[in-house]
Amino acid sequence: MPALLFALAALLPLTGPPPPALPTLQERAPAQGSGDVEARARELRAGFQRELQVWEQRRLKLSLGGRTPDPRALGPHPALAQAPLFQPLAEAGSPSAHVWFLEQLGALASAHDDAWQQREFGRHFEALLPAHAAHPDLFYVAAAVEVQRAVLGPEASERYLVRLEQESTQDEVRAGASWLRALLRKTGRTPPDPAALEEARELERSLVMRWPATKAGRKAAAELYRPAARAAETRLAQWVASALVAARAGQPPASWPAAPLAELALELEPLALAGHPLAERWMNTLLDQPLPADAPAAALRIARPLCFEPPDPTGDVVATGLSAYELCFRARGAEPATVALLAPFEQQVERLPFEALERVLTLLRERTPDADARRTIAWLCVRCALASGAAESYARALYWRGELERDAPDDERTRRAREACAPLEKVLVGGQAPELDALDATGARVQLSALRGRVVLLAFMNRFTGQGLESVEAWRMAAHGLAQQPFDLLVVNAGPSQAKDAAAARRAAGLRTIDLNTMQHPLLDTWMVRRYPTTLVIDAQGVVRARDLDWERTRALLSELVRAAGPPR
């Protein structure tokens, strides 16, 4: 009797001697050919899959609530009943039957030790290779190696996968085996082994190069993309920084360091060929052929994509893109055609970091002979400064508005700058604070003008998103320390009154709060609030004395102003 039948007999819930051996397929149907055997095996596999699906659904239902399924209600695994049907087909040489046994060994081995399972796996594997190297179901053999790897051990698992990779004639099978070889090196080790991780990356690189059109090739490309993209971003940033050092030192563009675009193309092109969409964007936007010949042209190639159309939305490349623009402006700022580079800034300037933008555009403004371009740059700086929400940037917005008024007082851009900056006069340091008239969370009316003679800390947050909640406890402590003094704390919540979580609700509880329930409320425009938290200190005369000052200085200023305001009224 074959070894597997002895094993199956041991699993049967019967007493007495084991049942007699089943006749082989040749004994039962000697006229059948190999084609009939394989067709029968495939038919049985299809039926088995249906039975297994029903059994798995029953197991999941019995496991609801974390319960352990009752074996009597669940019933035996379908493989136990099907094994005697597959055994003669395997003996007759059906590759599908051998694949079935490799897939189901875990279910069949419950009454046997690991050594039995290892022997059976090896026996069925050897029956498949090299005799059936072209069989499409070898893909499932690689999956069986992964499932059985704890029993097979790392060396045997590697040996089986290497043979699949070398002997199969199916690209999907070979690529899948290579992918699993990489996967086995990355899992099961705590802490991860750096040498094994590097071996895994090499396997993935080779896989992408050899079989880019396979499912495993696409998986490997996805694994390789993130570190490759971060490395590309780092190398571009390093190149731009080194080129800027040379440019700021007055060196001619011909002596600037060469851009690493060709090297980056070599690393990212295989991932693009494997169909990774972000790698394709890198190739289409930054690394498209022919590559630029000199450093200024390379800077021009990468500047706009990194600033406005980053190939990877998760990357932090805007600063590198702005520095690349600086290289362009240093090399070609006096050329009339360079002002055309302002077009994307006019469309998306609000999303750029103000300080870096101001530095770069100021350079072009100093070098370009185009008067209209200089006015456009001033207007762009106003827009970006206002979008930033920072008090320091607001002060720069007023500076650039002044530049427009001196240069072109009747220009449309000047008119728009005056209109956009008008609220700043009242909400920056030294301004007479505008009125605030609203209902607090209890329904009581709050008027800032009614609080004259008292110092006010006006704090904006967004309870729903959590922005500003980290400052709530400091505000509360300040109010507690100044209790019985001419001081009021007013908190304006820009989001819905409901907090995103209970902890956020507890932190904000007990504060006198005005809930706006929308981030488009006119009050936010009146006070020019673009980010959270935003804090303003308003003295007893209603004058803004500080905006977004660090908390230590804010607390000291509050104490000073409260003392100056005199005793409580």
Structure write-up:
- By secondary structure, the protein is mainly alpha-helical.
- It folds into 3 domains: 3-220, no CATH class; 224-427, no CATH class; 437-565, Glutaredoxin, CATH 3.40.30.
- It has helices at 3-11, 25-28, 34-62, 71-74, 78-91, 95-108, 114-128, 138-147, 149-152, 154-167, 171-186, 194-210, 215-248, 261-273, 277-285, 295-308, 318-332, 343-348, 354-367, 371-388, 391-407, 412-421, 424-427, 472-481, 502-508, 522-526, 551-565; strands spanning 437-439, 445-447, 455-461, 487-493, 513-515, 534-538, 544-547.
- Strands 5-4-3-6-7 form a 5-stranded mixed sheet, covered by helices on one side. A two-stranded antiparallel sheet has the order 1-2.
- Helix 25 links the parallel strand 4 (487-493) and strand 5.
- Helix 5 (78-91) runs antiparallel to helix 6 (95-108) and helix 11 (171-186) runs antiparallel to helix 12.
- It is flat and about 100 Å long.
- The relative contact order is 0.04.
- Residues 1-33 have low confidence and may be disordered.
How do you describe this structure in short?
The chain is built from 27 helices and 7 strands. By secondary structure, the protein is mostly helical. The chain has 3 domains: 218 residues, no CATH class; 204 residues, no CATH class; 129 residues, Glutaredoxin (3-Layer(aba) Sandwich).
